[in-house]
Structures are given as C-alpha cells and as structure tokens.
Amino acid sequence: MSDNYTRATFDEVMVPNYNPSEILPERGEGSRVWDQNGNEYVDFAGGIAVSILGHNHPGMVKALKDQADKIWHLSNVFTNKPALKLADELTKATFADKVFFANSGGEANEAAFKLARRYAHDNYGAEKSDIISFAKSFHGRTLFTVCVGGQPKYTEGFEPLPGGILHAEYNNIESFKALISDKTCAVVMEPIQGEGGIIPADPEFVKEVRELCDKHNALLVFDEVQTGFGRTGDLYAYMSMGVTPDILTTAKSMGGGFPIGAMLTTTKIAASLVPGTHGSTYGGNPLGCAVSLAVLEAINTPEMMTQVKEQSAKIKSGLEAIGEKYGVFSEVRGKGMLLGAVLSDEWKGKARKFLEAGWANGVMCLVAGADVVRFAPAANITDADIEEGLARFEKGIAELVG
Ligand SMILES: Cc1ncc(COP(=O)(O)O)c(C=O)c1O
C-alpha cells in the first residue's frame, strides 16, 4: 500500500467538514514538531489545547506501552484498575466524589447536561428543566452540546433542536438574573471562554452566579474541557476562583493527546445516573486511563503549576512586546498556558492570517474566533522553545505587516 498521501488526498477521501493546512505533521518531541518535508515547528498550539506535556513524553509513552502489553479493552461490563485508580486520584484532588469517564469533551458535557436534567427531574419534578449557558460559549459538537453552546452558526441547518436552553451574556449579571428561575436545572459556564475568544470570567460575576444557582436549586456546571488539567496553573481553574461547581467536565489536556474525557460530581448528584441511564462503550478504557494517570502524575505538582505560571508570564510579555512593536494587538489575555492575543482594530477578522504567517516561519499557534490568536503551549515548554517560538512568530508578523 502506498503512503504517498498529501493534503490533496484529504479532499478526495474525507468529509469536507475540516479545512486542514498543507502541513502534514509526522513526528513530535517536546514542544517541537516535524512535517512531511522535514520542516520543524515550535508548537504553541498543542493540537487544540491538548498536548499539555508536549509530544512523545516519556512517562506517557511508557504508561501507554505498559498498558498495551496488558489489556486494551473490556467494556463497562467489567471495571478496570487504571479507571479505578484515575477516578480515585481525581476525587482526591478535587471537590468531586464520583467520576464518569467519556472519550471527549463533548461527551463529558453530554453526560453533564443529561445528569443535570435527570437530577432535577428526580428531585424537583419534570418542570425544572431549563439549562442556562452563555453567548459565545462552546461545549462540543453533539446536537445537545451545540445547542447549549452560544454560537448560532453551529446549530443553523440542524433543526429541529433540543429545547429548554437559554443564553445569557457572559460577565453580565443582569442578563443572567433575567433568565434564572426555579425552572432552571443547570447553569453551564467555561471559567475562561476558549473558542469564544479567551475571555476570562469576572470573579464577582461567577460568585453571584453561584449564589443565584443556590437560591434556585440549580446545579452549576463548569466546563473545564479546555481550562482543566493544569492548563491555567491550577489542576482546575475553579480552584483559584473561590467558587466550587456541582459538576465539572474535563478532557483535552486530561489525556495529553490520547482521547479521554470525564464528568466529575458529588455523590448526591451522581445518584441520579442509576444503572442503565447513561453509558459509553469506550468510556474509562484502560489505555486512556493509564495515559491520563501519567499526565496527572506529571502535572499535579506545585512545581509544575509554578512553572506554568512562570512560562506563561514570559510568553505573555513576549506577545505584548510584539503587539506594541507592530501595533497588531490591543490586549493579551487569558491565564497560564491559555493565552489570547486580541487583534487591534486594523487587524480584526484576520486571525487566520497570523496563523499562516506563523506556519510559514516555523511556529504553530491557533485562532479563537476571527479576532484572537490563541496560544496553548505545553506546561513543560522550555525557555529556549519560548524564545525561538516568539522570534519566529515575530518574523511572521513583520512579513504580514510589511
Ligand atoms: C470548553 C470546551 N468544551 C467542550 C469542547 C468539546 O470537546 P471535544 O472536541 O473533545 O468534544 C471543547 C473543544 O474545543 C471546549 O473548548
């Protein structure tokens, strides 16, 4: 069988729902990636905020290989030790008492939204079914999760849509107050809106949302799919917000590149998902859980969380300096290894151009909407990789600006 494949093959044999780059990455090591032509890139993207320990991390590779030699798959007719150990560690490290494993962020959220509805149904009756989320939020691509997400472009043409979902303005407590009621079963929010443009939640806003959830017996769901597993400099972003959710979803960095997600919650709330109410063939499979345990072991240390904050400060000030020199950014925002350079008025709508200028100069970054260039490097990125990546990015911008 030939392996002479290129980007053109994508158009021939794959559904056109993506528009991938001509670059065909083949190999990675730490925060560097090499493509089909041997070109090397500094990785400030980590997939889309996934590779929290970079590429080819020895602890993760060993965990995967060791587990591959033992057993790959069981289904949930049996439980397995890696899943039990990962759930045990996650409950020790967070507010949660119980864990449900999924394969992705969207599936973790689907579980969370179903649980919130079921819990309200069991405890307060069928009338309590409204879910409130926020404009510009992103929670996945299943039909339920795109509807809870606050971006109409992802639901258009997929009607009829699930109902009982309301959208408030993020960081606008009056708009939220106008929607919450005793009919609300859950409020869903990202602590930092990722896809929406790296927009951090205002701490006062989050506290008031928590209080209003308590007043109306609504569950607070934190979608930490993008912010979780060390990305913001805490294991989970809620940990430094002075607010604890009732349900938390996590994926992306959780597997560092191996597909796994989870929903975390309390014993009382979890009790509504009795046998038969929800499930997943692959959720909690031993390979994914073994890898995630290796990620957790490497990430969840005070030293690593300090490193995230220190390296983040270096990248942020480097981006601010570039922004000032070329007049391309109005602000650099976000936290830890999740930063967004907001394009100045002159460059608004052109984030993709910055991405391409980076690729042409050997650095990978991301967009978060059309107005924000997003950076999601690995927690263990070195000073040398930061300096080289920023230098290459600056070169790209110098070319772009002309
Ligand atoms: C906050 C948030 N929730 C959910 C998802 C969906 O995760 P997945 O693509 O793994 O289904 C994403 C993906 O970008 C995300 O950023």
UniProtKB/TrEMBL annotation:
The keyword Flavoprotein does not apply. It catalyses: N(2)-acetyl-L-ornithine + 2-oxoglutarate = N-acetyl-L-glutamate 5-semialdehyde + L-glutamate. It is found in: Cytoplasm. Its main location: cytoplasm. It comes from the Bacteria. Keywords: Amino-acid biosynthesis, Aminotransferase, Arginine biosynthesis, Cytoplasm, Pyridoxal phosphate, Transferase. Coiled coil: none annotated. InterPro entries: Ac/SucOrn_transaminase_bac (IPR017652), AcOrn/SuccOrn_fam (IPR004636), Aminotrans_3 (IPR005814), Aminotrans_3_PPA_site (IPR049704), Class-III_PLP-dep_AT (IPR050103), PyrdxlP-dep_Trfase (IPR015424), PyrdxlP-dep_Trfase_major (IPR015421), PyrdxlP-dep_Trfase_small (IPR015422). Binds 1 pyridoxal phosphate per subunit. Its cofactor is pyridoxal 5'-phosphate. Pyridoxal 5'-phosphate binds at F138, D223, E224, V225, Q226, T281. Signal peptide: none annotated. PROSITE patterns: AA_TRANSFER_CLASS_3. Homodimer. This is Acetylornithine aminotransferase. It comes from Kangiella japonica. The gene is argD.
